[in-house]
Amino acid sequence: MRPLLRLLRRPFHEEQHSLKLQVLRLGSMVEESLCLARAVLVGPNLELAPQVRPGDNRIDCLYRELEERWLFLLSRRTSKQRQPRQLIMYLQAIRDLERIGDYCKIWPAPVNGSCLTSPWRCVTAC
To answer: N or C: which terminal CB in the chain sees fewer CB atoms within 10 Å?
Structure first.
């Protein structure tokens, strides 16, 4: 069954809970990507650099799926005042998490064959 058809049959609170768990999963993926990018920069551990881009692709896919599901859920529930605001807040959070994932993809690019480590000394170890 298609995911959107499944959404129609699930109660709102169940679907919202499921989506919240997926947002946490997205945050975990972004955190993992950020730690990997940091290891490449501060390490310098350049052999890890090729692993960053596939992680960003997974983040992008999950972001698109979550955005579609949240918008669908939002279109179903506009009657209560608080729910649309809460759903929009989650949409903004997943957009921001996806953007952080994009930054992780950009950071590990070495400049002139070496990593820039001095700006990242304040970053704590993952």
So the answer is: N
DSSP string, 49-116: GGGHHHHHHHHHHHHHHHHHHHHHHHHH--SSSHHHHHHHHHHHHHHHHHHHHHHHHHTT--BTTB--
DSSP state of 125: P
- pLDDT tens profile 13-67: 788 888 889 999 999 998 888 888 888 877 777 777 777 778 888 989 999 998 8
pLDDT-derived band at 125, boundaries 50, 70, 90: very low
- CATH: 3.40.395.10, 1.20.58.220, 3.40.50.1360, 3.40.50.300. Which one for 3-109? 1.20.58.220
Return the closest-CA partner of residue 66 out of 15, 105, 11, 107: 15
For 86-120, the pLDDT digits (tens) are 778 888 888 888 888 887 777 655 554 444 444 44
Q: Which of 29, 46, 48 is nearest to 117 (CA)?
A: 46
